[in-house]
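tl;dr need the bound structure. longer version: we got a ligand (thiamine diphosphate) that a collaborator sent over and nobodys looked at where it sits. i said id run it. heres the input, straight from their email, havent touched it
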Amino acid sequence: MSAPPLAAARRRELQRLAIQMRRLVIESVHHAGAGHLGGPLSAAEMLTALYFEVMHIDPAKPRDPGRDRFILSKGHCSIGLYSILALRGYLPVEELKTFDAIDSRLQGHPDMNVLPGLDMSTGSLGQGLSPGIGMALAAKLRGHSYHTWVMIGDGDSQEGQIWEAAFIAQRYGLDNLTVLLDWNGLQQYGFATDAGYGSLARQPAQENPVAKWQAFGWATIEIDGHDLQQVLDACHQAKTTKGRPAIIIARTVKGKGISYMENDFNWHSKPVTDEDLRVAREELAAQEAAL
Ligand SMILES: Cc1ncc(C[n+]2csc(CCOP(=O)(O)OP(=O)(O)O)c2C)c(N)n1
Ligand SMILES: [Mg+2]
């Protein structure tokens, strides 16, 4: 089942927000002198859709018991989440300049104890889905109608804990839980496909996730994770799936939006030079002008 089609003006507005988010990510990492880039950039449309269109949330009431929950299991992409939270009004955009500084609320990995609006602290890969299951199960047991959304990475889901969680979520029929897999095909490093490594060659971050999640009893929805309408349709379909949890398997490009970062694992995490920033701003401005 599809979501109502976006009006053209609204689609442009959301696309502009995704571009703004990308700009904030790069500016913040440039300012901090360190940080992750590729993963936040591949998640831009999904985070924009969730925070501006899909989730039932109110930035003025970040602890409202009825709010939808969001967990960024790939917690190293925190600056993407902080940027979208800032655009949505949870924190001042100016505060992004404190990213990764000592005593900042915006640590390299999300800390729910210091920043209202975060539903879980994450950063050690593989651990975000388990608390999501707790939240979804609690909603069922207490008769709450909120929905729980968890974003995982393909490298993140190489961790065994994800699969223990996947198994238990279908066991409890958690149809109030949706996972978004940012399937960008890369984790921290690239692949040595042959180069003499033989059986020790690094494998792609996650192969054939559709069959794997189906085997674990989940409803699967495959999309282009950079197409906002597809993201919205998938969220709608996931939310209306009954009797089992759903996963949105979103094909994405790591580093999406900045030509020299796309599909290059070197930009997983890297300082941004003044020249890098200049080129990135220019490219994003051109994308914005073309909307
Ligand atoms: C348990 C654990 N092992 C290793 C790391 C270091 N690490 C940080 S990000 C990352 C790769 C994550 O890849 P993926 O989930 O695909 O993220 P994305 O491509 O979206 O950035 C690794 C290995 C970690 N944070 N936690
Ligand atoms: Mg990845």
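gonna send this back to them w/ a short note. The two ends are 27 Å apart (CA to CA).
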